[in-house]
Amino acid sequence: MKRELRVDPTACSGHGLCAELLPELVTLDEWGYPIVARGPVPRSLDRHVRRAVTDCPALALKLLPTS
Amino acid sequence: MNGITQSTALWYASRATGVVSLLLLTGVVLLGVLVNRQGRLPGLPRFVVTGLHRNLSLLGVAFVAIHVITAVADPYVSIRIVAVVLPFASSYKPLWLGLGAISLDVVLALILTSLARARMSRRFWRSLHWLSYVAWVSALVHSLGSSNDLHSGVLLYLAIACALAVIAAVAWRIAHAGRQLPREERAAATLAMMSPRGGPQPPSTPRDGARRRAPENVR
Amino acid sequence: MTYGTTVPYPSPFPGPQDSRPAGLGPARTGTEPPGADLPRLLPVHGAVPVDLRTHLSRYAAPPYFGHPGKLIPVLKAAGLTGRGGAAFPVHRKLQAVAEARTRPVVIGNGAEGEPASDKDKSLLWISPHLVLDGLQLAAEAVGSEAVALYVHRNARLQERLRAAVAERAAAGVDLAPVEIIDAPPRFLAGEESALASRISGQPAMPRFKPPRVFERGVVGRPTLVHNVETLAHMALIARYGPAWFRAAGTPEEPGSMLCTLHQADGRRDVVETELGTPLRDLLRLEGTQAVLSGGYHGAWVPAADAARMTLSNEDLKTAGAFVGAGVLVALPAGRCGIAETARVARYLALESAGQCGPCFNGLPRIAAALDEVASPRPDPRAVTDMIRWAGLVEGRGACHHPDGTTRFVRSALHVFREEIRNHSDGRCVDPAREPFLPLPADTALDATDWS
Fold this sequence. Notes:
The structure holds 3 protein chains of 3 kinds. Chain B is mostly helical. Chain B has one domain (3-179). Chain B is 65% helix and 0% strand. Chain B is built from 7 helices and no strands. Chain B has helices at 3-36, 46-73, 94-115, 122-129, 132-146, 153-179, 186-193. In chain B, helix 2 runs antiparallel to helix 3 (94-115) and helix 3 (94-115) packs antiparallel against helix 5 (132-146). Residues 206-219 of chain B have low confidence and may be disordered. Chain C has a 6-stranded mixed sheet. A 4-stranded parallel sheet of chain C has the order 4-3-2-5, with helices on both faces. The radius of gyration of chain C is 22 Å and the shape is globular.
């Protein structure tokens, strides 16, 4: 099942860990909030994605089935 | 080794690992506040703060395990194994050990929920995690009451330092929460920060209503 | 053909009522379909509110089907789309909620947070029973007994609706009791997930999706949300059938709709019109420089282009605009389109819920940049900054507030580019800056009421 990475912007408070742990998919905008690449997550990044999702202090990162 | 020495060795091991556990737990609480406040350890990436917070808590549990096992195994005092997790069930110093059991119970709950935190509601995890302060206070009082070690000398200063550090961290956290703008005022605050005509743009909207430095570049 | 049953703003509350009787034409039994003529939702004469007795004598009782789901294929054949702005096919929403495994909740959305729109409040004031019929029919269709009407904060309107509901309950017209729920006076209060939050007891702030409200909405239950005008159309389609509904409008965009028209001379009316009506039949375009279609999340269209367009998404989308909830504003020549846009952008920024970093950082900056562009000899970086920020906020909020705001702003930068060049030279077509676009008076910098 293909899944995509999304950030819940109401929960995100701009900690910025996701950009450190997953620079391939996440960059920070000029205000410190994450810009997440669209589309399904490549399998090679699975481990890093799961870590970023678990480590987000605000639990704002979510792996969701591609809509 | 004769029985007395064996007992003494176990007793010393328990006290030593107890002190280390308290220090580790204090470190974990301080790091937790640092995570919440989006602070950093100088020169290190942010994931180090969360990583250290998690790893020190696991290390702390390991030391608590030794602390508890050696205490139970020590024949000099009679501590039933069930008293490790059931508060006030010990016949030896039930109150002080009971507080230790409470602390351990809460720490185990926090660690288990944190390991599975991606699978539960954010609100549930957060509410439970507030109990970390209960765990720390319980551990400190348990440490002060179960033996006289922390009543004098270096260990006394260490205990005071731990207490002061946590108090300072909590005060910092409360102060920030007090300054924090309610959500519905944030856009207005940003608008108010804009200079009326041109001029340099301020950094991102302060989440606490006070001026902030621009976020440092991570790489 | 447009039927101008105009309801003058700030109609009809609190001012004096139209004194003509509510002549509704010959009484209908409710089984014979009326002609395709308009008006359908508004009474034939005047703005006098229709009471239950008059409503029942014109339409008879709501034609309940006796079984959930039966209304849905009728609505599908009619091609009814939502009249709240999103134009989503109505039957699809009903189908999704009807298939839910837990008992659903049905909400009629009369929040109308858009300051330039009056049609929902007017409809609720004048023809509440059509809306309430639709609400009951929708509830029956999805098998729900938890029904509420979410109403714009106006004490008289809410009072009147409570009375209407009580009257219907006493007469045994309704299947399920209806609660009247107050909507806070916020632009976003009518957003589906904000509505669900409010009705669940929290502030009216949008939530992240998934889950959408039709899956988990009010207190976690599947929730059907329909604009009140949509419900009124449902009530008529259930009686007169899909063919009757399609006798107005176009094949792709059938039916009639309510529009709030803002003429260049300042008149503000609610009218009912067919989809596909030429815009020049609705707005006087002489002396108009541009038309705003779709409200404050819509887009500006130059008057010359608007003169060739009809009220249809097919036409309007060629200009980057859409029909939305039927708000049409004619900006007179001799006004500064950039200054008007800047005023509204400021309002939109302040109406941010403040939950999402990109929104509460980006929208105020965009508004400030617009203020700059509206001033004489603006800093040339203001436009490039604004465009960069627009790109940064689009799609990054929990709701479409950032997207709608940037659509509105981008269209202004395009349509009023001449005026921007004027400003660079230190000139403005309207230095006096008398405000034209309507905004609520209570927009303040202090904490606002979200619950």
